[in-house]
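seq as requested:
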Amino acid sequence: MGAYILRRLLLIVPTLVGIMVINFALVQFVPGGPIEQIIAQMQGEGDAFSSFAGGETQQTSFETEQYAGARGLPPEFIEQLEKEFGFDQPLWKRFVGMMWNYMRLDFGESYFRSIDVVDLVMEKLPVSISLGLWSTVIAYLVSIPLGIRKAVRDGTSFDTWTSGLIIVAYAIPGFLFAILLLVLFAGGSYWQIFPLRGLVSDNWEALSWPARIADYFWHIALPVLASTISAFATLTLLTKNSFLDEIKKQYVMTARAKGLPESRVLYGHVFRNAMLIVIAGFPAVFIGIFFSGSLIIETIFSLDGLGRLGFEAAVARDYPVIFGTLFIFGLIGLVVGILSDLMYVFVDPRIDFEKREG
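struct tokens:
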């Protein structure tokens, strides 16, 4: 297993470099770079995309000979901007310099916020961790017992009507459910039970620890519920199908023939094998929900998380934030992939990835 882990760790470097190369190359062909954004704002045009409606051709950020809309600005000013942002250097040199800084954990400073990228990410992390962690925990707490119950009572009325509820929940868009929750429980047309915005109250620092915990969960209740509504559907059906596959196997029939209680058969024999794929996939599920921090959910509930950060950085062409977060989360995602494999081995020691590769 040690050799397998070492190979996977060594593959992280070329994989991460490949991810960065592809995205760096693609960004160069997207019009409206940082300099064009600044020029557009100085010209009172709002942003670099406003001229698209009129059909005027925009050049990409690395084409520095002339910028549309910059005719009223002195060339020396444009050259100074290019030098300040590093666009006076060749593309390969900019990429190599960026990767060298990233390898030293120097992710630079946001172009437009005057704050380090790491500090900016850390500022947004509480929201994304709250949504990702609690959505994942609730999904597992609901899906596993429900999936087991559906498998045991397969074909009954309970299985039928719960499947209907799951299909309905899966079909409801998260943002639409979030709006419904706001209307019903956050001061819309009905009840004012939950707060409308924020992760904690303004006076959170002055509260006692029990009151802080209660205030935190009071604020995240609706966003987490909106994020979870469709997440547990796939997990529930996966749990049910895993149990059904195991229940039909010979060792289960043998255990029942020996007179073992049904609860002992289910939770002493079937559970471990059936839950292998479900439990081992927890790191990947969590990181998936965490990375996909819903921009719409965050916007509806006025939460300032990584979803909004990524969207705003993409719109503003804030390259340090775009590439810095891409590097950080790409690295985390690759490490989590290894952790998922280790979780498989932990749940079922019979799995040997080295023999499979051989």
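The two ends are 12 Å apart (CA to CA).
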